[in-house]
Design brief:
heterotrimer, A mainly alpha (about 675), B mainly alpha (about 475), C mainly alpha (about 300), B: about 475 residues, mainly alpha, two-stranded antiparallel ribbon, 17 helices, globular, C: about 300 residues
């Protein structure tokens, strides 16, 4: 089957799934399992597209529908970059839907009829966004995605905070979209078409003839995608909106939807924008935006008590990493292809990694909420004893996001640091950004140690009856955690696909071959063909760590043969229950948090107040129509007063009138 | 073809009489049947005449001597008229169907007794007939006649409930729109005296100095009819009418007659002086932003929708103005907006109707959490909301997008500035509408909203049909507007 | 090839052995020195070995279970030994092919991560307080180490530890590297958990902090890991920032390195003995200042000094 028919099939499956799950809405699990089936089937179709695209190369563009009236057409165009996003969507989509089946039984009053259909619409929108080659339809799918996710965010409709979050989300994203519409229109006046290739030509022309306008266009695109991705300050909506959605949907947002901001960024800056000095400028801007976001977002995450909110702030931070990597890559694109390739690979690979571990983390947080009914770290504790599997997956994903080697988060961060530090020679600021990124990586670690320590470790919380979540909720987490490990151990394998996707974009076509960049082993050796300047080989490191750890355990600890005894926690002899001797999550790192408080200013937007004088001025009824009407009415009344009904008076009027007429006639004649 | 087109005027007119005579229980049946016939005929005729412009003469006025284009009566079905025809007949049919349930004794806002059914459907169908007449008018005279007929129907329907408030509102609407009508008449007279013709094309033959005045008068007429600044004050008051009337007359059809007149005048010969075009565009922008400023103080859902309608008619006039300034894409976008806005705003109004029907209140602050008890209405309202604020893939996105393209085509600094202003207006109104939607349907359930359920089937069916309309109308209307050209 | 492989394996075994076996000796020497300054006799130099031996045989009291909790002490020691493989000792690091300075920095944090996870897992509030402090110290100290090593990377244009040293040997001392070295040394004080920065353990306040619930072999392994880490980091310091004279003869270089590391640790012990413990916020401020001052090294490196 061709790419188009496979995509059509998957879209049809998703829409059919939406309908079926809507019809089955009354029966929670039936609706859920039906959705799993449809999303799974669609996922298979998407993976078929992916395999086809990577094995046989991208299919030629196909125009399915042409709208000459607005100069747009529904062009299906899947290249390797799209394929990567299709793979992510197919996988994460299926896993989150599977997870939702049990999870959604949690909501007693809210029907799943407003969950599964929208979730599948969201996936359909994402597929559409990455599969189209025409900007108008890109926007159509983009908005389909936005409003589907809006209704997912406002799923718990009676919770005021969720409503506010949804509102902010939708309005902010709409503003961003409007900016992109304006940008697209500016390009359209040059090209007369919204095809990506035409927009590339138009932007190329603009860069040489009207650089200011080109910068405006790029700015609008950047704002649009950065908003969706959650780059601060535009991403302020994210920490409110993500926690509001049901956890399955949150994981889908974190794993797929946020990533489309990165997709758009790559599409615009590596495809629309031909290689030029402008690329360099915007690379710097994007890197700085990313650095600000990762710094502020992650430090703010440290303060959170709500686990999903904490993770949402980390989404901002992690997206900051992606932007930093891509920005570095773009900066070096015109001058140093090796560093450019490293940066772009780092950012894009980090995006994939983030999809894996952040989805896993959100699912884990959902599992905790599912069993305990709370998301507050202060109320949780000791869950490892009751939910060992969830705890293990959460631990893996948490260490991955914190960049602990040899997990996947470290692989992409390592590439990024290497780029930043090596690029620091040419542009010292980048070395500083690299150092900041490394520091923030530690803050991420601190934040997730807090999560693990407060929720899963330590003395048990007072919550009763907590047990492990059902298998259908564990399998997605297990899969994602495993993927984190695998991608960490053999980063070269996913990177090969990322590299193909990047070199498939016109402006990045001249990047060096992957082997000459990173060597041809399973590990990574950054450098050019001759000189290797950075090394990361996860397999030997992991093997050595495991070997040395086992040796220490068996040859030292166990060899001594000390007896083991389980004892209660020593509380200096005082009879204190676990509630009294708990160290609350809010107290962790207090001096450090205090040092960085106020880093995240909160902005309150009020409804615009129109000056009342203006409104009064336009209240024509009050000062124009009513007075006029009253004057007319008054005049008519005055006239009517002359009609008194007495014949003598009428006779008098006749006489007076006759005299007047005669007088006038005489006056004119004379 | 001529017969079919004439039937479209005659059937509802006859239906009106029949409904008025039969009254009581049979009136809704007759009305629905008549409206259905008209809708089917309209779709058929638009489909068969697609791509062409059908024109035929049917009669003349023997005493009107000296006219160059006698006979003066006839039918004209061209792409521009087709758009209005489709909007008027399809939404007309849906409104009649909706009314069958809405205008009943179980309406908690305003129970309608059986004896009122006859007059109601008489007026409604008469309006439908006159609206078809407007859409099919081949010249200014016939357009004027049907136009005034719609004004009269509008007056009687606004005042339908017969209480003090609605009588006042009806009278106000009549006065203002009729003053507009007088300007229209003045323009037509000047045209006839000068060119001995009522034809649309005759506008281009006028000498420059007179043409300016004629266009100005036509514009004033259009402003009054379409509730544009400075004549916007009647429309919010007209919300005293029964809700289906607000949806049909004051969102989808009658007010569209005003902008339709301008579209006709501009597109026949493209002879509008650019200065006036700019004035029209500027006033459209002023209207949009003024109406927007009223959003924030509205607690009455229907009045809010009325202001939104005013703003959207501003969009259409902006598009027409773009056409006058030389941007055909903008003109097409404006015309497309007639159709798209018609369907989306009708959806919103009829949802408001469903709410009023079930709860008896239209105060936004009193409503809340209705989605629980009225899920279908909630879905329809949000579809309408997204459609009217221009979120793709729903209706108004396409028309607004085309309008923006048209604005960009103007070039210079004006185009981008227009685009920016329109986007700003869209964003703010989107935000406010979304907020209102959330307030009414999501959030905690308020006491008023506690016990109700989705409306009876004729209303529900209407809402579903309109939702589908919000999705497909651009696909139907876009090929039509594409045919409008120089 | 084969000799190369043999050499690597031999070097790896040697590094691990040195880190494992020599570290307690250095700790013993430091204790002896401190006792001398205190005018005490002090424990014998072999006391750390005896401590470890004794602890390994003691009863293992556990307040929690689970795979991670059980494996953490051994893994912690394992991670420090892995760190030894990434650090040069008289020659290029044996695992130079597998990790550069970035990897090295991250591997050096693993033991702390495991310690903190164990502490949280143990369920003692003192351990939680200790972990919280440990994390804050890590947050304060790591940036300093990062800046110091990045200066080297910037100068040498490579991230490979061995190549940075080679560059140092070739180009001689520079201002930037001197500043970076001082910064790294200041960080070492905290990494070694010595006064005035033994805040996480702070025996007198929170009774060993993260280690409060650790006993017997588990405590032994954690202690051993800490001593090894302090030794390995001292070696790293002298290798990267004071590699001279660099004779090229492996045995000689190794001995020189060990001597230099000893001198460094002596200074650490001296600082330890004459300072009272700081509060955590004071320590954070102190390292913040150090980090910002070390940015100066970065600036010098950029202008080539």
């Amino acid at each position: 089957m061709s790419t188009v028919s496979l995509l059509g099939l998957s879209a049809a499956l998703l829409l059919a799934g939406a309908l079926v799950s809507l019809v089955l809405g009354g029966r929670r699990k039936a609706s859920g399992w039906a959705s799993v089936g449809f999303v799974g089937a669609a996922g298979v179709a998407l993976w078929a597209v992916v395999v086809r695209t990577f094995s046989a190369g991208p299919d030629p563009e196909v125009t399915l529908l042409s709208l000459p009236a607005i100069g747009a057409g529904f062009v299906v165009s899947v290249d390797c970059l799209s394929a990567i996003f299709l793979a992510i969507t197919g996988t994460i989509g299926f896993l989150t839907t599977l997870y939702s089946v049990e999870y959604m039984t949690r909501y007693r009053t809210d029907s799943v009829a407003k969950y599964y259909p929208l979730l599948q619409l969201l996936f359909a929108g994402i597929v559409g966004v990455v599969a189209t080659g025409d900007f108008v339809f890109f926007l159509v799918f983009w908005e389909l995605m936005t409003f589907a996710s809006f209704f997912l965010v406002t799923f718990e409709r009676e919770v005021r905070a969720n409503q506010r979050a949804g509102f902010k989300y939708f309005v902010v994203n709409q503003a961003a979209t409007f900016g992109m519409i304006a940008a697209a229109l500016i390009l359209w006046t040059r090209s007369g078409s919204f095809r990506f290739s035409a927009m590339r030509d138009a932007l190329g022309g603009l860069v040489t003839t009207q650089p200011a306008l080109a910068h405006l266009v790029l700015f609008l695109f950047f704002m649009g995608f950065a908003t969706k991705a959650g780059i601060l300050p535009m991403g302020d909506w994210l920490p409110d909106a993500y926690p509001a959605a049901p956890s399955g949907a949150t994981a889908a947002f974190g794993g797929t939807m946020t990533k489309l901001g990165v997709y758009g960024l790559l599409r615009v800056f590596l495809y629309f924008l031909p290689l030029s000095p402008v690329t360099r400028t915007w690379g710097l801007a994007i890197a700085l935006a990313g650095a600000v976001s990762l710094f502020v977002g992650t430090l703010t995450a440290l303060k959170q008590d709500d686990i999903k909110r904490l993770m949402s702030f980390h989404v901002i931070g992690q997206v900051g990493y992606m932007f930093l990597g891509i920005g570095l890559g773009l900066f070096f694109l015109p001058s140093n292809p090796t560093l450019a390739a490293l940066g772009l690979l780092a950012g894009t690979f980090h995006m994939i990694n983030h999809s894996l571990y952040k989805s896993c983390l959100f699912l884990g947080a959902g599992a905790v909420a599912f069993r305990t009914g709370t998301r507050s770290l202060s109320a949780l504790g000791g869950l490892r004893a009751f939910m060992p599997a969830t705890a293990m997956y959460a631990l893996t994903a948490a260490l991955a996001i914190a960049g602990v080697p040899p997990l996947n988060g470290f692989a992409s961060k390592w590439l990024m640091y290497a780029t930043a530090i090596l690029g620091g020679k040419a542009f010292p600021l980048f070395a500083v950004l690299g150092i900041v990124a490394m520091f923030i990586s530690l803050v991420t670690l601190a934040s997730f140690l807090k999560y693990l320590g407060s929720a899963f470790l330590g003395p048990p919380s007072p919550l009763r009856g907590v047990r492990e979540v059902p298998a259908s909720m564990l399998v997605p987490q297990a899969f994602l955690a495993l993927a984190c490990v695998v991608f960490g151990l053999v980063p070269a394998w996913p990177l090969a696909f990322v590299h193909r996707a990047l070199t498939g974009l016109a402006s990045a076509a001249s990047l060096p071959r992957l082997e000459s960049l990173l060597g041809d082993g399973p590990g990574l050796q950054a450098g050019s063909d001759l000189v290797r300047v950075a090394f990361w080989a996860p397999l030997p490191i992991a093997a050595a760590l495991a070997l040395l750890g086992l040796a220490a355990y068996f040859l030292i600890q166990r060899a001594a043969g000390a007896p083991v005894r389980n004892v209660p926690v020593w509380t200096c002899g005082e009879e204190a229950g676990p509630e009294l001797s708990r160290y609350p999550a809010t107290s962790l790192y207090l001096p450090f948090k205090r040092a960085f408080q106020g880093i995240y200013p909160s902005i309150h937007l009020r409804a615009p107040a129109f000056p009342s004088w203006l409104r009064r001025a336009f209240d024509l009824d009050a000062w124009l129509y009513l007075p006029v009407a009253r004057a007319v009415e008054g005049g008519a009344r005055a006239v009517s007063r002359t009609h008194v009904g007495i014949p003598q008076v009428y006779l008098l009027w006749i006489v007076v009138g006759a005299i007047a007429v005669v007088g006038i006639v005489l006056a004119f004649l004379g | 073809m001529t017969a079919v087109l004439l039937l479209m005027v005659i059937v509802p007119a006859l239906g009106a009489v029949l409904a008025g005579v039969l009254g009581k229980r049979r009136a809704p049946v007759v009305a629905v049947a008549a409206a259905a016939v008209v809708a089917v005929l309209a779709v058929w005729s638009v489909a068969t005449s697609f791509g062409t412009s059908y024109r035929d003469a049917v009669g003349t006025l023997p005493w009107l001597t000296g006219a160059v284009d006698s006979p003066v009566f006839g039918v004209l079905l061209d792409p521009l008229g087709s758009v209005l025809l489709l909007v008027a007949t399809l939404i007309g049919f849906l409104t009649v169907l909706y009314s069958a349930a809405y205008m009943g004794e179980r309406n908690r806002d305003h129970a309608v007794v059986l004896s009122q059914q006859g007059p109601y459907y008489f007026r409604l169908l008469l309006f439908l007939a006159s609206m078809v007449g407007v859409a099919l008018a081949p010249n200014f005279l016939q357009l004027f006649l049907f136009w005034e007929l719609t004004t009269v129907c509008s007056w009687s329907l606004i005042a339908f409930y017969g209480n003090e408030k609605s009588l006042r509102a009806g009278f106000k609407a009549l006065l203002i729109t009729h003053i507009g009508g007088l300007f229209f008449l003045l323009a037509v007279l000047i045209l006839f005296v000068q060119t001995r013709s009522f034809a649309f094309g005759a506008l281009a033959q006028l000498p420059e100095s007179l043409r300016r005045w004629v266009f100005l008068f036509l514009m004033i007429a259009a402003w009054a009819k379409a509730a544009q600044v400075p004549f916007h004050t009647w429309l919010p008051d007209a919300m005293e009418a029964p809700t289906p009337i607000s949806a049909y007359l004051h969102a989808a059809a009658m007010v569209k007659a005003g902008v339709f007149l301008m579209a006709r005048a501009v597109s026949s010969g493209w002879a509008m002086p650019p200065g006036l075009g700019m004035l029209m565009g500027a006033m459209a922008l002023v209207t949009m932003f003024l109406a927007l400023s009223y959003y924030f103080v509205q607690d009455d859902l229907k009045r809010l929708l009325a202001y939104s309608t005013i703003a959207h008619l501003g969009y259409v006039l902006l598009g027409v103005a773009l056409g006058a300034l030389g941007s055909i894409t903008g003109f097409r976008g404006g015309v497309l907006h007639i159709a798209c806005h018609g369907f989306s705003k009708a959806t919103l109004f009829l949802c408001a109707g469903a709410i009023v029907y079930a709860t008896g209140t239209r105060s936004i602050s009193a409503l809340g959490g209705l989605a629980r008890s009225m899920p279908l209405t909630a879905v329809a309202f949000f579809v309408g909301l997204l459609a009217v604020t221009g979120v793709p893939p729903f209706a108004c996105f396409w028309s607004k997008f085309m309008l923006l393209e048209g604005a960009m085509k103007l070039g210079g600094i004006v185009g981008p500035v227009l685009v920016g202003l329109v986007l700003v207006e869209s964003l703010i109104s989107f935000g406010w509408m979304l907020r209102v939607g959330q307030k009414i349907f999501l959030g905690p359930v308020t006491p008023v909203a506690a016990v109700n359920s989705d409306p009876p089937w004729p209303m529900s069916v209407t809402l579903v049909a309109l939702m589908i309309g919000c999705l497909v109308i651009p696909a139907v209307a876009m090929p039509l507007v594409q045919l409008i050209g120089r | 090839m084969n000799t190369g492989l043999l050499w690597t394996v031999g070097l790896a075994v040697l590094s691990v052995a040195l880190a494992l076996l020599l570290a307690p000796l250095y700790e013993g020497l430091m204790r002896k020195l401190k006792a001398a300054i205190h005018s005490r006799i002090g424990p014998p130099i072999t006391q750390p070995y005896l401590d470890l031996f004794k602890l390994l045989g003691k009863e293992d009291l556990r307040t929690a279970g689970g795979l991670l909790y059980t494996a953490a002490p051994a893994l912690s020691l394992g991670s420090v030994l892995l760190l030894a493989l990434l650090v040069p000792m008289g020659a290029r690091p044996p695992f130079a092919f597998a990790g550069d300075i970035v990897v090295l920095l991250y591997v050096s944090a693993i033991s702390a991560v495991l310690l903190m996870l164990t502490a949280f897992g143990s369920g003692s509030p003192y351990a939680s307080v200790g972990s919280s402090r440990e994390m804050m110290m890590l947050l304060s100290v790591e940036p300093v180490m990062v800046v110091a090593l990045v200066v080297g990377a910037l100068k040498a244009g490579t991230l490979a530890t061995g190549d940075i040293i080679a560059w140092q040997l070739e180009h001689g001392p520079t201002i930037s590297m001197a500043i970076a070295g001082i910064a790294f040394f200041l960080a070492l004080q905290a990494q070694a958990g010595k006064l005035p920065f033994d805040i996480p353990e702070a025996d007198q306040e929170i009774m060993g902090g993260p280690l409060i619930e650790q006993s017997g072999p588990r405590l032994a392994l954690f202690r051993w890991a800490a001593w090894s880490k302090q030794f390995v980091l001292a070696v790293l310091l002298v290798e990267v920032f004071l590699p001279w004279p660099g004779t090229g003869v492996f045995a000689l270089d190794l001995v020189l390195t060990l001597v230099k590391a000893f001198v460094v640790l002596v200074v650490v012990a001296l600082v330890d003995v004459v300072n009272p413990r700081l509060r955590i916020d004071q320590a954070m401020q102190y390292y913040l200042r150090v980090a910002f001052s070390s940015i100066a090294a970065l600036a010098f490196a950029v202008i080539g000094m």
